[in-house]
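Q: I have 427 residues here and want to know how they pack in 3D. Can you give me a structure?
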Amino acid sequence: MTELNEALERVKQASWLKRPAVRAAFELLDGGQGHVRAVGGIVRNTILGDPASDVDMASIFTPDEVLDRAAKAGIKAIPTGIEHGTITLVFGDETIEVTTLRQDVATNGRHAEVAFGTDWEEDAKRRDFTMNALYVLADGSLYDPLHGVQDCLDRNVHFIGDAAARIEEDYLRILRFFRFFAYYGSGRPEAGGLKAAAKLKDGVKRLSAERVWAEFKKILAAPDPSRALLWMRTTGILALVLPEGEKWGMDAIHGIVAAEQELKWKIDPLFRLISIIPPQADKVNQLAERLKLSNDEAARLQKWAMQPPIAPETTAKDVDKSLYWGDQTAILDRICLDLAGLRQKLKQDQNMELMAKIGALHQHMERAQAWPSPVFPLGGKDLIAQGVEPGAEMGKILNELEQFWVDEDFQPDQAALLAKAKSDGLV
């Protein structure tokens, strides 16, 4: 059986086609007559043999017609994007987005004005890549008007029609090109798309910061984004998206990906971002403001930038002190980044000193991951009971006793701390 036949058979036998919600959506919208078809990622991933879950559909029916049919059938329908032709059908715990066939009437590089239609090929032509213009009918047969199935099997991320024209419809497609290459591409990016992306890269400046960060974050979340980032750097696009890292380099990303795979670390886009920017507070603040990162994302980067490295020779006691007084996530980010870098270096230069440092950092990492965050057992009420007046002096006493408690490996209990306070004349 050829690769193509195997792919078509995977589609025909896809388990998602048999799910009750999917069957109900096909039935609601005359799937047997081809009036509604599954489209996009669910089809692409099934062909590739990749994990696939959420089902999106395209239909010849207008949003109002979809809403009307759903109401008569007692199916909950939400007009989530009705101006763009999208209705969300709710089947218990599963939702399916149904979008009316469309064609672009006007574009401005950021948004498109669309008209609804009934022509499947015209709907396919307005999409971005050939691998996303694949449709599956209710019986599992594939509709491929733009010959995208072979691009899909070849893992060739290929723009539909003229690459420059597709990009000028929405400049976010420049970043989507690299995102899809990161997830599904093989070898070099398709030459026409790469050339058009490089030529039109300044269009990225016209996009909102939120759209740029959302798309770049998806690139960083790919199983291995290193090749996509390399081509983004080569074309000058990475410098537009991430000028803070332009002179810093992105070589660390290779070690991060290797450590994730070998040590079973969870993919973390923000940690990967940390690896390709300098640990400088001003640069981090500039990045967070420019890309409009969330408060939590910005805080994590800022704490990492201000956190001193944890050297391999650091004692366990000093690691504990750092964890208590500092930020656990920032410390782990520092340790893991250095650990990944040393592991990568060891592959080119194996020696006992490097191995010892890696072993020490690995212990620090495990210690930080298991950090119990002990609670200081003394408070203001305890000192008031000893006759200490509330105020600045009480704060000084508590700080001194807390420092003693930390220096003693968090061992003294409340009674021991009060005894210490009395013996030192603090109370």
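Q: Anything worth noting?
A: The mean pLDDT is 94. Residues 380-423 form one domain.
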